[in-house]
Amino acid sequence: MRVLDKLATFEGRSRFTTWAYKFAVLRAANAVRDRAWRSRDVHLDSLDALVTAEPGPGQYVEAIDLADAVRRAVATDLSPYQRRIVVALLVEGVPIDVLADRLGTTRNALYKTLHDGRKRLRASLTRSGHLDQIPERGAQ
Amino acid sequence: MTSRARPFGPEVMRQLTLDTEPWLSCDDCFHHVDEYVERLLAAQEQAMPAMAVHLRGCPACAEEAETLVIPAAEDSGMDPRPVLAGLGAG
Known about the structure:
- The structure holds two protein chains of two kinds.
- Chain A is mainly α.
- Chain A contains six helices and one strand.
- The relative contact order of chain A is 0.12.
- Chain B has five helices and one strand, in the order βααααα.
- At the A-B interface, helix 2, strand 1, helix 3, helix 4 and helix 6 of A face strand 1, helix 1, helix 2 and helix 4 of B.
């Protein structure tokens, strides 16, 4: 059993049950996501997925300008591989473990690509003066 | 069948430009998630800032951490709902 194989890694920083549960949670989550995406294609060149959402009244010009700036940054400031991974994970919502399996890579490697891509996008939008316009969590 | 395209609205823009420093890998997150969840339940999560950053930036790890809250809370005789609400799980 998977948990028994990992017993030597238990360091006592949590209850043993919490530590053991996390292996079951990981396994179940991977199985659920794999099943949900089993019959779905993943397109890695989906800049078309960056369809601008309808802004609210009074926000049209600013929202379109911001969306265009982000779209330009994605299109021009990421490497081709970063762009494909960032769009797949964050725009198309492909689960990271599903994408890792499809690409024959690891979750760690994809998250590192995402991390580096985000840094480039932040740098790009800082240069263009748009970063401060990105809405906070929960904003409409 | 194609993957589902999502509207490019405020939440997608926020996720695209999230500051995910300090760096923590998914493997390191998994290594620490049991301790982090128990600290969340004890309102001591501020001791592990890199975990909070990683969970904001990695939906899969966040989903797994949220799921772990429920049995961990039950074992402690605690209500998981405040922690889940704080993680955005409602």
